[in-house]
Amino acid sequence: MFRKTNETKVMRDPVHGYIHVDYGIIWKCINTAWFQRLRRIRQLGGAHMVYHAADHTRFTHSLGVYEIVRRMVNEVPDLRDALDEKEKITVMLAGLLHDLGHGPYSHTFEKIIRGSHEEYTCRIIEEGTEITELLEAECPGLAKEVADVIRHTSKNPLLPQLVSGQLDADRMDYLLRDAYFTGTKYGEFDLERILRTLRVSDSKVVVKESGIYAVENYIMARYHMYWQVYYHPVCRSYESMLNSLFLRLQDLYRAGNMPVVPAGFRALAEARVLTLEEYFLLDEYTCGYGFAVLKDAEDPVVRDLASRVQDRRLFAYEENNADAVRRVQEALEGAGYDPRYYFAMDEVGQRPYVPYSNDGSAPIWIRVHGGEIKEISEASTIVSSLVNGPVLRDDRIFYPAEIKSLL
Amino acid sequence: MFRKTNETKVMRDPVHGYIHVDYGIIWKCINTAWFQRLRRIRQLGGAHMVYHAADHTRFTHSLGVYEIVRRMVNEVPDLRDALDEKEKITVMLAGLLHDLGHGPYSHTFEKIIRGSHEEYTCRIIEEGTEITELLEAECPGLAKEVADVIRHTSKNPLLPQLVSGQLDADRMDYLLRDAYFTGTKYGEFDLERILRTLRVSDSKVVVKESGIYAVENYIMARYHMYWQVYYHPVCRSYESMLNSLFLRLQDLYRAGNMPVVPAGFRALAEARVLTLEEYFLLDEYTCGYGFAVLKDAEDPVVRDLASRVQDRRLFAYEENNADAVRRVQEALEGAGYDPRYYFAMDEVGQRPYVPYSNDGSAPIWIRVHGGEIKEISEASTIVSSLVNGPVLRDDRIFYPAEIKSLL
Amino acid sequence: MFRKTNETKVMRDPVHGYIHVDYGIIWKCINTAWFQRLRRIRQLGGAHMVYHAADHTRFTHSLGVYEIVRRMVNEVPDLRDALDEKEKITVMLAGLLHDLGHGPYSHTFEKIIRGSHEEYTCRIIEEGTEITELLEAECPGLAKEVADVIRHTSKNPLLPQLVSGQLDADRMDYLLRDAYFTGTKYGEFDLERILRTLRVSDSKVVVKESGIYAVENYIMARYHMYWQVYYHPVCRSYESMLNSLFLRLQDLYRAGNMPVVPAGFRALAEARVLTLEEYFLLDEYTCGYGFAVLKDAEDPVVRDLASRVQDRRLFAYEENNADAVRRVQEALEGAGYDPRYYFAMDEVGQRPYVPYSNDGSAPIWIRVHGGEIKEISEASTIVSSLVNGPVLRDDRIFYPAEIKSLL
Amino acid sequence: MFRKTNETKVMRDPVHGYIHVDYGIIWKCINTAWFQRLRRIRQLGGAHMVYHAADHTRFTHSLGVYEIVRRMVNEVPDLRDALDEKEKITVMLAGLLHDLGHGPYSHTFEKIIRGSHEEYTCRIIEEGTEITELLEAECPGLAKEVADVIRHTSKNPLLPQLVSGQLDADRMDYLLRDAYFTGTKYGEFDLERILRTLRVSDSKVVVKESGIYAVENYIMARYHMYWQVYYHPVCRSYESMLNSLFLRLQDLYRAGNMPVVPAGFRALAEARVLTLEEYFLLDEYTCGYGFAVLKDAEDPVVRDLASRVQDRRLFAYEENNADAVRRVQEALEGAGYDPRYYFAMDEVGQRPYVPYSNDGSAPIWIRVHGGEIKEISEASTIVSSLVNGPVLRDDRIFYPAEIKSLL
Questions:
Q1: Mean pLDDT lowest for which of A225-229, A270-274, B33-37, D365-369?
Q2: What does the pLDDT read at residue B112?
Q3: Among A4, A150, A159, residue whose Cα is nearest residue A83
Q4: Measured between CB atoms, which of C10, C18, C192 is closest to B17?
Q5: Do D17 and A192 touch (CB under 8 A)?
Q6: What value does the mean pLDDT of chain C take?
Q7: Do A15 and A150 share a domain, yes or no?
Q8: What integer best gives the mean pLDDT of chain B?
Q9: Among C6, C8, C9, C169, which residue's Cα sits nearest to residue C96?
C-alpha cells in the first residue's frame, strides 16, 4: 500500500550518522514548506546565549526523532512483530511531525501565545495544509491517526510510548543532539544499548534488566542537561528579557500604542489564537528582524529591551530571597526602571526522575529476570535513591545589570 | 599594559573543548553588538541545504580562530619567544575579528554587494565603531595594527601567516568546524600534531618534518571538504537561486519597480557600497524575513524565486556541456522562464594544493631534517604528486526542476 | 636542580592525546626494566574475557596517571602555586610509579601472594633497584619521598590526595582508559571540567561548586564501571578459576607433589613473600606460558583448570542462595568434582560513593559559593540520595558448566 | 540448514560498537581453543614499542573482520541478493578465521618460520583440528570452501574480494582498529559511506562514483598508517632485534649449542615446518617467557639480545647510505660486536596505491555515472596523481646505541 522510495534516501546527520528514508510519504512530508519552516526555529530557546554553538534547529531534531522511531520499529524484534506496516509508518510520521507546531524560542514562546505547540501541531497535520493533503492522499484517515499518536489517543497504546513516554525517541534525540551542539558531555548515553534491550510486554515498551545501567545513565544525562543547559541562569535571563519585550508589546497593543512590527509579530502582541497562515510566518527570522526594527521604536522600553535581546546585554541574576528582592526592587525604583518589565523571578526545581509525571507520559518499565515488569525506581537502587532523595531547586531573580552598583 | 581578566573566562566549544579568554580587550570585543551580530550570519552559504545540521555561525568560527591563534602564541615555543605581548594580542584580535565584515550567505553575498568582506572588516575595525573605540582605548594605534594583519601589511610578517596563510588558524578552524557540524569526517585532521610541530625560521611559520603527514592529511581534508561540502551541487543550486533573486531585485530597482523590502535589503538592491549602519542590519534574519515578505511581492519572478529559496524548492542541475545547455535553454523558452533568472552555470575546479596562490597567502613551509626550508610540494611525495597531477573540475548548469519533463 | 629534557618528549596516547615528559628523571624511570615490565601486566584481571579488546596494560595506565598529575600541578593555578618544584616532581613520580608492584591478573593475584601491591611498589622504589639508584642520583632522599606519597605519609598532605584520594589521578585515568579499551561508555566523564574546577583550600584539594555536575558524573561513571566491567560475572568466573588453579598448586606444593612450572610460578605456589628478583619475573607472559605447560601436568585437577583458563572454558554462575548452593554441591559430588577447586562463591556490594572509605583515601570536597568546604554528599542532592539509598549487591556462585545438566 | 543462535549474541567492540553473531557455527568457532589462541598474538609486531597502547590482538581484529563481512552480506543490497545463505556463512567464516595461522610478532615471525601464515591458516581449518570438525559437522565440505576463500580459489569470485581485495574487510578493520589503539588519527576513514556505496557488477565488488571521496580517504589512511605506524623506525628497530635473536638461536642450534628454551621456541630455532601442535604453543606468552629465560643463557649474544628485547633497549637507527654503513661497521668492529647480529638494514618504499599488486588482491573498482567500471586510478584525479607520482622510500640501518659515541 505504502510506496517505497526508489532506493533508500539518506541524509548525513552528526548524531545518528545518517537519516534513512524508505517511504515516499516520509520524503514528501520532509519537502513541504511547513516542515522546511522548522529550519527557522531553533531547538533551544535561549541556550545558544550560553553555549554559542547551539544553533541547531527543530528541523534536525525532527529528523532525528524520526530516525530513532524508524530504528525502533525496524530493529527491535518485538516492535517489528507487534506493529503492522501502517502503524509503523504512522508512528514514524508522528515522530517526524511532532514538533511542527513549535514557534520561535521554544517554550518561552508558548507562554506568550494562546495554545500549546501540540495543539498547533495537530492543527497543521489535520486542518488542510499541504501535509494534510499528502497524508490523506497516501491513505485516507492517516492525518487523524498521526495526530492521535501526538494526542496520546491512538488505538494501539504502543505508538504514543515511542514518541512521548519517559524513554521515548523525542527525549533520546534531544539529549544526544543538545549535548552534541552545546559541546557538553552531560547528555550522552548509550542509545545502542537501550535500543538493543527494548522489548514489548503487555502493550508496554519495556527495557530488559540488562539495559538498566544504560537507563540509569539516560536519567542522569537528562538531569544534568536540565541543570547545565535548559535551566542555566544565563539562558533563563535571556528568556526573561524576551518575555518582558513581548509583555510590553501586548500592553502597548491593549493601550492602542502598538509600534510598527513585522506582520507575524503583530499577531503575537494581540495575544490571540493564530491562524495557520499567521503561524507559518512566525519564525526566528521574523522575530530577529522584528528586534532590529524595534530598536528604533518610539517606546523607550521596547527600544531598550529589543536592543538587550539583539545585542545580548543580559539581565543580571542572583538567588531569589526576600532580602534580595527588596534590595533589587528599591534599586530599580531609584533608577527609574519599571519592574513590570525589568524584574523577573523564576523557580525551577527538579527530580532526576518522577515515575508518574503529570504530563501523562508513560513511566520507564523494566522487565526483570524472571519476567516481572517493574517501574524503574522499583528495579534500580540508584533510581530508587534519586526518587526518594531531596529535590534540587534553583530560584532566581533577574534585573538589568546596570543597577548592580546601586545594590 | 594590557589588562588581564580576573580569572580565565571560558566558553564551551564543541570543536576545541573550551575557548579561553585571558585579556579584557578580547572579552570586551566579544561583547560588542558588532561581534554579536555574527551570531546572525551562518558560516556556510548554502551548505545547510545539503547538510541539515550545518547551521553554525561566523560567531562560533571567529571564537574558534581566536582560540587556535591563542594556542599558537602561547603553546608553540618559537612563537611564544618571537612575539611580544602586544603582537600576541594584536594577532589574537585579528583572529577574533577577521570575519566581522561578512554578510549573509557567505561568498554568494560578496558577488552581490560592492566590496569584499575584508574591506568591510577593516572599516568596522577602523572607522569609529564601538570596536574601534575599545581598541584605541586599550592602546592607541591598535585598531590599525589589527587591520594591518588582515590586510597583510603588518610590520612583523609572522602575524598575517597565523590568520591567513595556507596553513592558518582560519582554515584549520573552519575545516574542523564544518566537519563537525555537517557530520562528515572529511574535514578532520590532527590539529594537535600540527601545533606541536610548528616552528619559526627566517620569519616564516614552518612545520617540522615530523609533522609532514599531518599536513598532508590537512591538505586532503581541505580538498575533500571543497568537493563534498562547499562545492556540493545542491549547495550551488541554492546559491544560484539566491543570486537570481537579488539580480531580479537589482533589475527592478533600476527599472523603478522595486518591491517593498526590509530596510537592509533595499541597499542591496541598489548595488552600492553600504554605510556601516546599513551593513549592520544586513544579516540572515533580515534576509529570511525578506524572503517571506517577497513571497507576496507583485513581481511574479520575485515571488517565485523567494518561495523557492524559503521553501527549499531547489533548481535541478546537470553537467555543463553544449548539448545540455541547448536542451535546457529550449525547454526554458518553451515553458516561458526568463533564462536571465532561471538559468545558471558555474564552473569549479580545484587542485588539492597550489603552492603560490593568487590570494597572497603564504605557502606551507617544511623544515626538513638538517634545517633547510622547503615549500611542501618539494618535501612531500604526496603533495608533489597532487600538485603535478590533473585538476578535477565540476561544471554544472542549474534550472527549475519543473522543466525536467520537457528536456 | 632537576634537569629538563632537551625538548618536551611526547608519547601518543589514545586517552590523553599525548603524554608529555619534561624532566629527565621521569624519562629515565620510564626506560627502566622495572617500568617496562608493566607492559607485561594487564590493567584488568579478567575483564578481557568479557570485553575482548581490554588488553591494555599497567604501563599505559601508569603513563596516564602521570599525565593527569602533570596537568594538575601545571594547569591548576592553586596547585601550581602551592607546590614547589621538588614536590611537583615527587608527586609526578608517585603517579608514574604507583603501580610498579602490581603482579599479573590484578587483584586476584594479591589474594594469592603475601603482601599488597603497594608494599611491593615501595620495595621496588626504595630497596636498591635501578629505580632507587636513579631517584637517589637525582636527589638524595627522593626515593623515600616518592614512596611516602604512596604510603600516605608525605609531609605535605596535598601530595597523596593527587594520586590516591577519591577523586585522584589514578581513578580518573583508569575510568577513562577502561572505558576506552572495553568500548563501553560508562566510564566517561568530563576530565577537563574537573581539572578546571580544582582548587586548594586548607591543604585540601577541593572542587569549585560549578564542577559539581562533573563530579556527580564521575561518581556515576565509577559506579557503572564497577557493575558493568570490574564486577561482571564472567570476569569473576575467570578470576575464580585462576584462584582455584593457584590454590591447587599451593596444596600440591604443601603435599610435596608440585608439578614442574616456570620459575616465577614456583614461588607463588610456595605462598611466601617474594624477593624482588622473583617478583620481576612474575608477569602475565610467565603465567600464560605456565598455563600452557600445566595443561600437560600429571595432576588431573591442575591439567583441567589450566585448560579452562587458557582456552576460556568459563565456570557457569548463578545467584547465591541456600537452595542453589545445595543443588550445585550435590551435583558436583555426583559428578566427582572436588568442591574445594570447583566451587566458588563471592559477594560484591557497592554504594556509588562512600564519603569516608576505610582505605584512608580522602573524600571529595566541594567549595560552595561563599567559600565553605563541604563533603560532596552535603553539597549535592544527587550524591546525598545515593549515599542514603540502598546498596546494590550481587552475590554469585561459580561451578563447571558441565554439571548444569545435573542441576 | 544452518542453525541460528537463540537470539543474536553480541560482543562490545570499541571499533564497531558491537560484534553480532546470529549463526551457531560462528559462535562455536569463536569458542575453540584455536580461535582463543589469537588472544595471545598481538595484531602489530613491534608497533606497541612506539605506540604504548597498541596491545590489541588478532582475536579482536578477527572479530572485526567478521563483523564487516557480516554487514557487507546483510546490508549491501547487491551482495545480499548475489550470495546464497551458504556463501554468506562461508565468507563470514573466512573473515573470522583468516588470521588463525598467524604466529607471534606478525610478519617478523613469518621471516623466521617456514611457511606463510595463510598456509598455516588453511592447515588449521582443513587438517583435522576442532575447527575442521565443527565446520564439517555443520556442512560437509565447508572447511575446504572456507579455505578456498582464503586461497583465492572460490568458485564464486566475489567471496575472496570481500576478505582479501584492496578494499576488503581485513584492511578496513585493521586500519580503523590500529588507529584506535595507537591513538593516531591517520587510519580513520568513512566505513559507513564505503559500505553504503558498495555494489556488485560483473562479479566484481565495485564502489559507486559517489563513494569515491571515501575511497580516496581510505587510500590516504592506509598510506599514512604505513609510514606512521607499520614502518615507524622504532618499530623496525625492535623487529630487527627480534630477528637477530632468532638468527642467533638458529646458528647455535646448527652448531649444536642450543640453549634451554621453552618447548615452542625450540621448533623455531630448528627452522622447519611445524606441526600444528607445536604451532599452537607458539604465542607471544611463550616468546615473552622465552626472552626472560634467555636473559640467563650461557651464550652472551643471546643473553644480550634477549635483554634488549625484553627491556626495550632499542637499536639506534639512521639513514642507510654507504658512508653511514662504513662508519657503523667500523665502530661495531672496534667495539667487538658481531655485525651478523648487531647490524641490520632494511628498505621500505611505498606508493599509496598500486592498481594491480603482486599479491593477487583485486584492484579497487569504481562504477562511474553511466555504469562503466573503471579501476580507481582512472576515475579519481587524486589517485591518478598518486599512482603516477614519485615513490617515498625510507632505508635505514640499525645498530646498538652503545656505539653511537664511537661514530
A1: A270-274
A2: 80
A3: A159
A4: C192
A5: yes
A6: 93
A7: yes
A8: 93
A9: C169
Residue type, D288: G
- Cα separation, C341 vs C343, whole angstroms: 6
Q: D231, D258, D279: which is the final residue of a domain?
A: D231
Q: Are residues C81 and C189 in the same domain?
A: yes
B234-283, pLDDT tens digit by residue? 999 999 999 999 999 999 999 999 898 887 778 778 878 889 999 999 99
The position carrying cell 634537569 is C3
Residue type, A315: F
Q: What is the pTM of this model?
A: 0.95
Residues A267/A249, Cβ–Cβ less than 8 Å: no
Residue D179 pLDDT > 90: yes
Residues B366 and B238 in one domain: no
Q: Which of C12, C49, C59, C312 to mutate to test the interface with D (most CBs of D within 10 A)?
A: C12
Nearest to B289 among A17, A51, A285 (CB): A285
The position carrying cell 541547448 is B326
- pLDDT in the model for residue B88: 98
pLDDT in the model for residue C359: 72
The answer to whether residue A107 scores a pLDDT higher than 80 is: no
Among candidates C195, C193, B387, which has minimal Cα distance to D381? B387
Order across the sheet with A344-350: list the strands. Answer: A315-319, A392-400, A344-350
A255-264, B41-50, D35-44, range with the lowest pLDDT: A255-264
As a whole number of angstroms, the distance between CA D242 and CA D341 comes to: 10
pLDDT for B30 beyond 80: yes
Is D369 a domain residue? no
ipTM of the complex: 0.95
- Percent over 70 (pLDDT), chain A: 100
Q: Which residues, in sequence order, are bridge partners of residue B400?
A: B315
B196 to chain C: which residues are within 8 Å by CB?
10, 18
pLDDT-based confidence at C302, cuts 50/70/90?
very high
Classified as helix, coil or strand, A303 is helix
Q: Which of D231, D266, D292 is a domain's end point?
A: D231
Give residue D214's Cα distance to chain centre: 23
Percent of chain B predicted with pLDDT > 90:
83
Q: Which chain C residues contact residue A195 at CB under 8 A?
A: none
Name, in order, each residue with C-beta under 8 angstroms of A112's C-beta and a sequence gap of 6 or more.
A243, A246, A250, A268, A271
Give the single-character DSSP code of B57.
Answer: B
Q: Whole-angstrom Cα distance, residue C206 to residue B247? A: 62
Residue D156 near residue D91, CB atoms below 8 Å: no
Same-domain pairing of D225 and D99: yes
Residue type at position C326: R
pLDDT of residue B1 exceeding 80: no
pLDDT at D354: 83
Q: Write the single-letter amino acid at C192.
A: E
Nearest to A40 by CA among A62, A29, A54, A56: A56
The residue segments making up the domain with residue D114 are 4-231
Distances (CA, A) of D404 to D131, D282, D318: 51, 35, 11
Q: How many residues does chain D have?
A: 407
CA–CA distance, C218 with C167 (Å, rounded to integer) = 9
User: Which among B13, B181, B290 has CB closest to A14?
Assistant: B181
Q: What is the distance between the alpha carbons of residues D30 and D25, in angstroms, rounded to a whole number?
A: 9
CATH at residue B261: 1.20.1250.30
What is the spatial distance between Cα A394 and Cα C255, in angstroms, rounded to a whole number?
69
| Residues C269/C271/C274/C280 CA torsion (nearest 10 deg) | 40
Chain-chain contact of D213 with B227 (C-beta, under 8 angstroms): yes
pLDDT value at residue C298: 95
Q: Are residues D221 and D87 in the same domain?
A: yes
Q: What is the CATH number of the domain that holds A142?
A: 1.10.3210.10
Q: Tens of pLDDT along C220-238?
A: 999 999 999 999 999 999 9
Number of independent structural domains in chain B: 2
Q: Are D93 and D29 in contact (CB under 8 A)?
A: yes
